[in-house]
Amino acid sequence: MPLEIIMAKVYIDNKLYEVDGSKNMLENCLSLGLNLPYFCWHPVLRSVGACRQCAILKYKDDKDTKGKLIMACLEPVADNMRISIEAPEAHLFRASNIEALMVNHPHDCPVCDEGGECHLQDMTLMTGHNYRRYRFKKRTHNNQYLGPFINHEMNRCIQCYRCVRFYKDYAGGKDLDVFSSHDDVYFGRHEQGVLENEFSGNLVEVCPTGVFTDKTLKKHFTRKWDLTDAPSICHQCALGCNIIAGERYGSIRRILTRFNGDVNGYFLCDRGRFGYEYVNSDQRIQKPLRNQQGVFSNIITVEAIQEIKEITKSAKKLIGLGSPSASLESNFLLRELVGKDNFYAGVPAREGKLIRLVIEILEKGKVKTLCLGEVKDCDAVFILGEDITNTAPLLALYLRQAAKNKPGEQAKAMHIPVWNDAATKEVVQDATGPFYVASVHTTKLDEIATRTFLAHPDNIARLGYAIARQVDDRLPAVDLDEDGETLAGEIAAAMLSAKKPLIVAGSSLFSETIIQSAANLAFVLKDKGKDVGLVYVIPEVNSMGLSLLSDRYLEEAFEKAGQDSAATVVILENDLFQRMDKTATEVFLKQAEKVIALDYLPNLTTAHANYILPSGTFAEADGTVINNEGRAQRFYQVHVPDNEIRSSWKWLQEILKDNPNSQTKNFDAVTRSLAEAFPKLEAIATIAPSSDFREGTQKIPREPHRYSGRTSMYAKINVSEPQSPYDFDSALSFTMEGYGAQPPAAITPFYWSPGWNSVQAINKFQIEVGGDLHGGNPGKRLFEPLEDSGLDYSKNIPSAFSQNQEEVQVMPLYHIFGSGELSALSPSIKERVPNPYISLNDDDAAKAGISEDTILQFSNNGQIFSLPVKLHMGLPKGVAGVPKGLEGTAGIHFPFSIHLNNHKNG
Q: What is the CATH number of domain 807-899?
């Protein structure tokens, strides 16, 4: 929880500074811009004093000339304190300490994946240690296979303990630990195997050496200084985590965290970090294609544009289908092309209407929807219906931190500073809460929950309404059984006693009443004077943005296509077979006079197209997206492909132009037009510097000043260095030339500062270490709570669910690896994707005579599915589950009912 800031005056090397008295000395030194080496400390993991690297000299008073060595990360600040970083004794200790830490280090920098971006290298140089004196045999270790994401090289370890502190203590992982005997310390699994935690990829950035490195980068390794980088947004869920995408030789080589204190902070989930590889697929559509009698062939771009332009102009009926994975700009220009009455959000109504409901609550409600950075500060949590680890992974990571706040008050009562992680953990141990989860099946967060409630979505909503009634008895009563009443009373009491309670819900179960009951509970807590927060989980990166552009959905488009004359359909970055049932989708596409698709990869929808235009992914396109809290954020293309791939909005502009020789609008102009057409989106025009922004006269380089090989990499074409492409759409350049100091946060392509080559350089870009970026965190919120809310309490209380004999209701189950359509195509992610299955309640299965792995056959909208049965997943009676979005379950409409007696043995 935030502490009151008390400033103190301290003398550092005889110079007076005013510092934050609630932070330790290391944090304050770094926040002042001073260089002080460290290894075990991390702004989020805090202090344990394991590495002894941040030694400074502390003096009793101004007359003390000798001082004593202390560790800055464990030293609280006191007024008129005197310390020295530059004292010879402190220098010598730090240099000697790093020499001892590196006694068994292999000194393999030239072949280490971390070389040139290594915190150990930086700190070694900072201490002045430069000569190895140790001449004896080094201790060595065997490395482990840790799965498709992480490469393990244990011999580089310096025993800072950061890895296990993040993986176990922060992320809740169970299968990575430290094993030791005498002076032999080993960080790994008890036996080799896949790291199971969903945040294991953060070890790549948390580790200060080359012990844990990115295995997907290793497959096509490039030195870090030879990457072209760009600020971007993760497209794998609706949270909008900030990322840095790195490119070399026309392919994306890695994804790194881009710090945003309001969103993802220092971390990413594994789907966001490793799900990028579909961008490099050899199946990418690289040139315009024309379908002639079922055979696709390349077509010259000018011809493609001209033919498509003629088709759209002469069409009697145009239908445009947008996409929640495409940018606001691309969706807007498609709307301009087909007309506002012919533009449809490319999602089913059952999904789109729920997102519109969420938007209404955020726009007109009295409770603030919290950003991820604020979630960590909450001290009581109630989750309704969401399997957060699989639907919004990084939210789950920060909910784990929120669960520690209430128990952490014990340590504060003992006057233990928040930054002293070792002492705090000694007091708190593994205590969590109050933390309540209501779900249709067991979830990963159950392990930190105070209580869990497994039920049908209707009964989860009823619990939410009942808790609101417990808070304020003027609200409608809800009949629950005795256990339900007790639980409702317990949760209500916990929320009322909390300083900052949080309610989390979402659209994953397709339940309107869950969304409404969560709002009811948040509103009533607000009326009781609580500083309550509300977070909704929605499906995709731009689900909210798309819903702000249209409230018409796929069912209406399908119906319109079947009326009167055949329609020409333009489909934007959207595989309709993932969203609608196969039969209806095939009928819709076959009825169309012409189908024009803009997409990245071949899919079932593009197979029906007459023309395909190659769209840019996040790596080859610029755009704006709006995340689940209503934060508009910008992403920028990393490189210019040597083919015809380009942003969808650029293709659509070409089709819209009356004169093919007229100049295409740049990105800023498109964004301004969008903001004028939709006043609610006015803020998007100012969320990042415009394309004419310059620092002096210079653009911001995407490549670091150490970038190499610009001539040699094109030597097979020409020994002369080619002219770099010019970026008309942003203030970034595709070169290493440009402004060398810190750019604005929204267009920072990489983190580097003199002496700081690793990701720890982020310290230099923050106002204070661990705090906001200079100039503010990127993005702008579009919704803020209203004091005079225009929303009344919902009274839409569903009837209690009760099982209908052998019939069960099938709900969607989500998998972090698999439920994302594009990330599942990435080779490393593909290794973690489960096979399709149907999960049953154990008692329901036994009653129907169904055992594990029985093949259960069922129908959904006329399509037959045959899936093996999985048991023991904690489903309540009368509820079954099928994974959503897997290759074998695409197009299923949830929820639906089946009779268990319609099965056959496998």
A: 2.40.40.20
Q: What is the CATH number of domain 353-538?
A: 3.40.228.10
Q: CA–CA separation, 374 vs 672, rounded Å?
A: 31
Beta strands in 573-718 (DSSP E): 594-599, 611-614, 623-626, 631-635, 700-701
Q: Looking at the DSSP assignment, which residues form a beta bridge with residue 46?
A: 42
Q: Could you identify the residue written with the tokens 């995709």?
A: 540
- Max intra-chain CA distance, the chain: 95
- The half-sphere exposure of 647 on its side-chain side, counting CA atoms within 13 A, is 28
Answer whether residue 687 shows pLDDT above 50.
yes
Distance (Å, whole) CA 469 – CA 477: 6
Q: Residue 190 carries which DSSP code?
A: S
pLDDT digits (tens, 9 = 90+) for 776-807: 999 999 999 998 877 889 999 999 998 877 79
Q: Using pLDDT thresholds of 50, 70 and 90, give the confidence band for residue 460.
A: very high
* 212 DSSP β-pair partners: 152
CATH class of residue range 7-102:
alpha beta
Distance between CA atoms of residues 450 and 434, nearest Å: 6
Instruction: Please give the helix or strand (H or E) that residue 674 lies within, else none.
Output: helix 667-677
Bridge partners (DSSP) listed for residue 631: 781
Cβ-proximal residues to 556 (8 Å cutoff; 6+ apart), any chain: 344, 349
Confidence (pLDDT) at 560: 92
Cβ contact 388:537 at 8 Å: yes
Name beta bridge partners: 613. Answer: 598
Under 8 Å CB-to-CB from 414, ≥6 apart: which residues? 427
| DSSP β-bridge partners for residue 612 | 289, 597
Query: Where in the chain are the domains?
Result: 7-102, 353-538, 807-899
DSSP string, 563-597: SSSPPEEEEES--GGGTS-HHHHHHHHHH-SEEEE
Q: How far apart are CA 588 and CA 533, in angstroms?
A: 42
DSSP symbol at 713: G
pLDDT tens-place string over residues 375-412: 999 999 999 999 999 999 999 999 999 999 999 999 99
Give the side-chain half-sphere CA count within 13 A for 849.
Answer: 6
Tokens of 508: 């994953």
Instruction: Write the CB contacts of 581 (distance below 8 Å, at least 6 apart in sequence).
Output: 860, 861, 862, 863, 891, 892, 893
> Would you call 68 helix, strand, or coil by DSSP?
strand
Helices and strands, counts by H and E, the chain: 25, 36
pLDDT tens digits along 589-640 = 999 999 999 999 999 999 999 999 999 999 999 999 999 999 999 999 999 9
Structure tokens at 323: 């996409």
> Is this structure's pTM higher than 0.85?
yes
Structure tokens at 135: 């001449």
C-alpha–C-alpha distance, residues 177 and 286, integer Å: 45
Contacts of 382 (CB under 8 A, 6+ apart): 436, 438, 467, 491, 495, 501, 502, 503, 504, 521
